[in-house]
Amino acid sequence: MNSILDEKLKVIHITASYKPAYIYGGPIQSVGKLCEALVSLGVSDKGLGTDDLQVLTTTANGTKELDVKIGAPILINGVSVTYFKRQTKDHSHFSLGLLFGLRKRILRNHQDDSNNEMSKRQTPNAKLLIHIHAWWNLVSVLSCFVAKWYRVPVVLSPRGMLTSYTLGNRNSLSKKIIHALLGKQLLKYCHIHATSEQEKKDILKIITPKSITVIPNLVSFQFPVSNIHKLINDTFHLLFLSRIEEKKGLELLFEALAIVNIPWLLTIAGTGKSEYVQSLKRKAKELGIHEQITWIGQVSNEDKFNLLAKHDLTALTSYNENFANVVVESLSVGTPVLISKFIGLADYVADKNLGWITGLNIEEIKTGILSAYHDIEKRKEIRINAAILVNTDFNDGALAEQYVEYYKNVLFTPFPLT
């Protein structure tokens, strides 16, 4: 094992979007945090130096484009990032420039200097690894195809994109076509990285990858938080902090809140498609709870931790989440969580007794809210202990070392490249 870990490696991260495209929510934070931690660890020769880690991404920023330099690497928080224009402005994020940029970098890293394409394809560089983030977009799928063509090992972090829920949900027909024509064979070539045991189980229901490994996301914390929340209040303050979309289960939360017999207020922080947000507002009005809900839109990274600390409970009743960064962010400031059992961190929250786990039944969610409201002692203990626990369990340096070890085991453990 030591001889493997002493080896040198280079990693190209492929992601359809990158900082500062915060409109895409948690994955942007997770990918950026991972790359920054790997480069930071490289200072101590345990991680990857700036020259050893590159990010290739697009200018995607929702329906708009980021105002950034195109086609040449720039440093973003110490990470070398190259942005490419995309030809489509939708969720497919097709970018011809990115694909050519990836090919150029692969060929540059081949040990054989021959100009013969076939010769280069037959002489893979054992030191190079491609780490692809997310799936079902053309950046990820076609980058995987390029890597497989040139026989470069691939680590894929699906980030919740390889579950039965996702496959059967939005754009399900196009996903099934991509999966049948190309995706299924490409996924067999990949080493899969899952962020939780639940995500691992979901993935294995769909595909049998070359290998699969669980390592948690890296999540940003902010210590200390200046606002100390009073535990005993007449009104129970709940917070939803996430991208607003169907899988988050806000309708379920609304229906449960409509039948609880306690005084409450709900703050909703985040953005989503305007049509869907408006449908939620109509539902809240139909349920007679709209005056107890405050919609504050997107919250900056600088402000969100104080916002979390001011609330009694962070609620996320999602149909499916591979990880859910907001759970760790909330606990890092001592705010308990109420989450569905279909969230990747549900087992962690249950094991550490850091909140309440519920199903997707309205009565179950109602019961969870009432339990959280009445159990002041448990909330007090979480306020005191949660920050220490998550700071230990999700330590940047320790997790970054796990990723480096994982990369080297993928690179230097013999696997068939077909």
UniProtKB/TrEMBL annotation:
<dbReference type="GO" id="GO:0016757">
    <property type="term" value="F:glycosyltransferase activity"/>
</dbReference>
<feature type="domain" description="Glycosyltransferase subfamily 4-like N-terminal">
    <location>
        <begin position="52"/>
        <end position="219"/>
    </location>
</feature>
<dbReference type="Pfam" id="PF13439">
    <property type="entry name" value="Glyco_transf_4"/>
</dbReference>
<protein>
    <submittedName>
        <fullName>Glycosyltransferase involved in cell wall bisynthesis</fullName>
    </submittedName>
</protein>
<dbReference type="Pfam" id="PF00534">
    <property type="entry name" value="Glycos_transf_1"/>
</dbReference>
<dbReference type="InterPro" id="IPR028098">
    <property type="entry name" value="Glyco_trans_4-like_N"/>
</dbReference>
<dbReference type="InterPro" id="IPR001296">
    <property type="entry name" value="Glyco_trans_1"/>
</dbReference>
<keyword id="KW-0808">Transferase</keyword>
<feature type="domain" description="Glycosyl transferase family 1">
    <location>
        <begin position="231"/>
        <end position="386"/>
    </location>
</feature>
